[in-house]
Design goal:
Length: about 130
């Protein structure tokens, strides 16, 4: 399972770099300074959590608790879709109604890092 997530993490990093370049070189003149800031925040968190997926995949090979690392990766992926995805769409389309979705992605990121910490420290939930 972690090998699959390592591949997903690599593709997510590729997309983060491509989307960042697209934003800087194509979108910026068309969507304005405020919207490009929102877009860049999406890229920033996308990249950090793409690296998080790769890190959790590697940690499985060093004895981290596999079940929690899989959950960490699921939560990181969910966070990228909800947090970064909503910011990308808001920046490009102006759809402000997506705003309440963004914090759900942030909660997914936080829960993912908690699962990661529990997995690598060997701490139980109780």
């Amino acid at each position: 399972m972690q090998r699959n997530f390592a591949g997903i993490g690599a593709v997510l990093m590729l997309l983060a770099v491509a989307l960042g370049a697209f934003g800087a070189h194509v979108l910026e003149p068309h969507i304005g300074e405020k919207a490009i800031g929102t877009y860049e925040t999406g890229v920033h968190y996308h990249m950090i959590h793409g690296l998080g997926i790769l890190l959790a995949s590697v940690a499985a090979g060093f004895g981290g608790e596999a079940r929690r690392l899989v959950w960490a990766n699921r939560l990181f992926l969910t966070g990228i879709v909800l947090f970064s995805g909503s910011l990308y769409l808001m920046a490009v389309t102006g759809w402000r109604w997506l705003g309440p979705i963004t914090p759900l992605g942030g909660v997914s990121f936080i829960a993912g890092w908690l699962m990661f910490a529990l997995a690598v420290t060997g701490r139980s939930r109780s």
